[in-house]
Amino acid sequence: MFGINGVEAIVLVLVVLFLVGPERLPEYAQKLKDLVKAAKRYATGATEDFKETLGPEIAEVDWRKFDPRQYDPRTIVRQALLEDDDAPAASSASIPDRRDELVSARLAPGERAPFDGEST
Asked: What is the pLDDT of residue 40?
C-alpha cells in the first residue's frame, strides 16, 4: 500500500499523533469516522443505483458461471472427449481446402518476400 512497510507506517502514525496532539485527537478521530461512514453510504448508493439502472434481470444472473477459475483446461478437454459424437460436425465440404494453395505459394530459396509499403 503506497510503497511503505509496517515500520514506516508506525512512524507515520506516531508523527501524526505528535503533530495533532492529545487535544485535537478526538476531533480528528470523529472526522475520520464520518469520512468512513460517508464512503460506505456512497458505495451502497452506487450499488443500489447500478441495480436500479440494470433492472431486475441483473438479480437473476448466475454470476458463478462467469467465474474464470472453473475453466480448467483439463476439465474442458475431458468434457470434449466424453461428449457424444452423434451430432454431425460442420460439413467439411463447405470449407474449401486451401492447403494446396499455401504450398504452391512458398518462396523459392533466395527469393524475397513481397512487401506492401501501404500496409504498414
From this structure: 94
